[in-house]
């Protein structure tokens, strides 16, 4: 059975998350339903990472197995036709080796988060940003973020329902920057690691927002990390504003497509 890698973009607002659920809409369920229109029967796709309700995908990666050969471009076009009008799109498709796996072959995941700083409600960016009323100090937030880089026990920044075998992870990048946009000033976070704990990125952002607001110091972030206690974490930020921005593999399977 030929295997295909899919690069997937989606707006998370109407979905209960990536993972298929019996009674709620999911991104995985939408793609599997589209596959069933092309090849009758049950389909199970695997993804590089599961995103929660309201979280968006810029370049999620999944793989599927088909019973016949498809030209990758035609497969992506056919899937996009059957995915309409849902806010899900296959932006790239490539045939891969049978042992290639969207999750287990991945070397890193990259996340992006946006905070919009203005008092007026978000209109055009509704559901795409976390809006806060006050201005935030990006320099102080970066100082706090630097305390989290490297290999640590991230129990403090791990959801109580996280199923990972160990809280020990290596954070390769946590970059904070300020940007002026058409709708107002934003703080952007770029986060990169091989893998993440459940709610780890949202826990980072919520904690660093406290630093930017002046309620915490950068050293408070280091102390929270050292506590290895979920109670020491700052508020977990909402899912709006979080994007799975990319997945890295030993070779870019989409490079030639």
Describe the 3D structure.
The protein is of the alpha+beta class. The chain has two domains: 103 residues, Alpha-Beta Plaits (2-Layer Sandwich); 138 residues, Alpha-Beta Plaits (2-Layer Sandwich), CATH 3.30.70. The protein contains five helices and ten strands, in the order βαββαβββαβββααβ. Strands 1, 2, 3, 4, 5, 6, 7, 8, 9 and 10 form a ten-stranded mixed sheet that branches. α1 packs across α2, α3 crosses α4 and α3 runs parallel beside α5. The chain is globular. It starts with a strand and ends in a 9-residue tail after the last strand. The relative contact order is 0.19. The mean pLDDT is 96.
Write out key terms for the chains shown.
257 residues, alpha+beta, Alpha-Beta Plaits, 2 domains, 10-stranded mixed beta sheet, 5 helices, globular
- Give the helix level as a range of percent: 10-25%
Spans of at least 5 consecutive residues whose pLDDT stays below 50 are none
Given the helix and strand composition, which structural class is it?
Answer: alpha+beta
The CATH top-level class label of the largest domain:
Alpha Beta
Q: Return Rg in Å.
A: 19 Å
The oligomerization state is single chain
Helix tally equals 5
> How many domains make up the 3D coordinates?
2
Order of H and E elements: EHEEHEEEHEEEHHE
Beta-strand share of residues: 25-35%
Record field, number of beta strands: 10
Report the end-to-end length measured between terminal Cα atoms: 21 Å
CATH architectural designation of the largest domain: 2-Layer Sandwich
CATH-derived topology of the largest domain: Alpha-Beta Plaits
């Amino acid at each position: 059975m030929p295997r295909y890698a899919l690069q997937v973009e989606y707006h998370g607002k109407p979905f209960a998350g990536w993972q298929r659920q019996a009674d709620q809409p999911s991104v995985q369920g939408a793609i599997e339903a589209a596959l069933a229109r092309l090849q009758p029967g049950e389909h199970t796709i695997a993804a590089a990472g599961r995103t929660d309700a309201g979280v968006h995908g810029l370049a999620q990666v999944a793989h599927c197995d088909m019973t016949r050969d498809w030209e990758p471009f035609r497969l992506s076009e056919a899937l996009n036709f059957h995915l309409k009008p849902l806010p899900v799109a296959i932006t790239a498709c490539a045939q891969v080796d049978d042992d290639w796996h969207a999750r287990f072959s991945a070397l890193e995941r990259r996340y992006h988060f946006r905070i919009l700083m203005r008092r007026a409600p978000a209109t055009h960016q509704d559901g795409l940003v976390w809006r806060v009323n006050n201005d935030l100090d990006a320099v102080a937030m970066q100082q706090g973020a630097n305390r989290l880089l490297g290999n640590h026990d991230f129990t403090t920044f791990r959801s109580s329902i996280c199923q990972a075998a160990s809280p020990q992870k290596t954070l390769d990048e946590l970059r904070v920057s300020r940007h002026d946009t058409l709708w107002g000033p934003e703080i952007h976070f770029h986060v990169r690691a091989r893998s993440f704990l459940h709610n780890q990125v949202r826990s980072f952002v919520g904690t660093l927002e406290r630093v930017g607001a002046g309620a915490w110091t950068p050293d408070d972030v280091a102390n929270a990390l050292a506590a290895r206690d979920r109670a020491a974490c700052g508020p977990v930020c909402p899912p709006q504003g979080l994007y799975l921005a990319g997945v890295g593999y030993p070779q870019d399977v989409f490079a030639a497509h």
